[in-house]
Automatic annotation (TrEMBL):
Keyword list, A-Z: Cell inner membrane, Cell membrane, Membrane, Transmembrane, Transmembrane helix, Transport
Keyword Transport: yes
Transmembrane domains' residue ranges: 12-34, 40-61, 82-106, 126-143, 150-168, 180-197, 218-240, 260-282, 303-323, 329-349, 369-390
Xref: Pfam families: Trp_Tyr_perm (PF03222)
Predominant subcellular localization, coarse grouping: membrane
Subcellular location, record wording: Cell inner membrane
UniProt topology in membrane: Multi-pass membrane protein
Name under which the protein is recorded: Amino acid permease
UniProt entry tagged with the keyword NAD: no
Domain of life: Bacteria
Organism: Neisseria lisongii
Length: 400
């Protein structure tokens, strides 16, 4: 069986940027609002806990890729080491999560363009769609470089906003101690959905095939940087406004307190965040399609064009079709695909250790595969799924 996906060199920095760019979607701007009852400390607690367990599942996949000669995506690794049922389960998980996220980015980009420039929402989404789909069409190397450039711009914008906030006379760090741990469960669920870069580990492995020992380092570095950035935004917003005055989107709070420059900077950041997350999730979806159906996207331009169309057109149509029922269905399916993502990587690494083709340059420490760690991961993701369904069906306490 020939390799459908070819190695395309990316640098260590580009690999790190892929993780940061994929994780830092527009959701980073709504974290503060989600923590308005719990407060900053419960949010920080969950950012650490979920960040660690997500990194562990990513390192499971990393070791499996290092034990495999071919450049396979999650569905391909699942087929090889778990079986056909695992492959289809993983492919369904990738598909549903990608569709849900890409629909959100298509609709969100239109609304943001409208608020920034006053243009029609549909036209705004088309303007977003062009660079988003173009980079997917150009391949992994272009994706890595684009992620590096835009992520660097995002980090710079965020640091300017955070710096201005911390120096602002009305900023009060005592607000960080406010809140109640009784409301920590809803915060946990949001954080689970923020860390979403698991899918791009095989893409990073493909890009770093020339220096495989850098893969786990890039994952840990990228996730650490993600944690710092996600923690800084609510720290700034809560310090600036207090828990009682947090707006649903942080851009409004920043704009009201710091001035119109902050509003435009923060909204520009949000637009870039959607773009980098679109590239990460869309690129992973594209290569999973190629891997699962043996499409030679790296050798055949027609196959590449077809795969890009499959990835990019349905989310655009769904975002403006008014098919609310279908979008709700994506939500529920996405919840359960999160549970799949907590189960299958563990089975993949177990299978890879038993039947892998090559000795890896790196392997997960044994404690990561202990039953205690795995049970914790499974229980947390399962609890997240139960909470998400209960929330959608209005079965939770009113205070949540």
């Amino acid at each position: 069986m020939s390799d459908v996906l070819k190695a395309e060199k990316i640098t260590f920095t580009e690999g790190v940027a892929m993780i940061i760019g994929t994780n830092i979607g527009a959701g980073i701007l709504s974290v503060s609002y989600a923590a308005r009852k719990a407060g900053y400390l419960p949010l920080l607690f969950w950012l650490v806990v979920v960040g660690v367990i997500t990194t562990i599942t990513m390192l499971y996949v990393a070791e499996a890729t290092l034990r495999t000669r071919q450049h396979e995506q999650l569905s391909g690794l699942a087929k090889r080491y778990v079986g056909k049922w695992g492959s289809w389960l993983m492919f369904a998980s990738v598909t549903v999560n990608a569709l849900g996220a890409l629909v959100a980015y298509m609709g969100g980009s239109g609304r943001l363009m409208n608020s920034l420039f006053g243009i029609d929402k549909g036209l705004g989404s088309i303007l977003f769609f062009i660079p988003a789909a173009l980079v997917l069409g150009l391949g992994l190397k272009a994706l890595g470089r684009s992620e590096k450039v835009i992520t660097a711009l995002m980090v710079a914008m965020l640091l300017v906003l955070v710096g201005a906030t911390l120096l602002f006379p009305q900023t009060n760090f005592e607000h960080l101690l406010d809140g109640s741990w009784a409301y920590m469960v809803p915060v946990f669920n949001l954080v689970v959905f923020i860390y979403c870069a698991q899918y791009i580990v095989p893409e990073m492995a493909r890009g770093l095939a020339h220096k495989p020992e850098q893969l786990p380092k890039a994952i840990i570095t990228g996730m650490t940087c993600t944690f710092v950035l996600i923690a800084l935004v609510p720290l700034s917003v809560i310090s600036l406004n207090g828990l009682d005055n947090i707006t649903e989107v942080a851009t409004i709070a920043w704009g009201q307190a710091l001035g119109s420059w902050a509003f435009f900077t923060a909204n520009g950041f949000a637009l870039f965040a959607m773009l980098t997350s679109y590239w990460g999730i869309g690129g992973s979806f594209l290569t999973n399609i190629a891997d699962r159906f043996s499409l030679p996207v790296d050798d055949n331009k027609k196959a590449r064009f077809l795969a890009v169309a499959i990835v990019s057109l349905p989310p655009f149509v769904l975002a403006y079709s008014g098919m609310v029922g279908f979008v709700d269905a994506l939500y529920f399916a996405g919840v359960f695909s999160g549970v799949v993502l907590s189960i299958v990587p563990f089975l993949i690494i177990k299978g890879a250790r038993a039947n892998g083709e090559i000795q890896p340059q790196w392997r997960c420490p044994d404690w990561m595969l202990s039953p205690l760690v795995y049970c914790l991961i499974f229980l947390l993701y399962s609890a997240s799924a139960v909470y998400a369904v209960a929330a959608k069906l209005n079965m939770l306490p009113a205070g949540w």
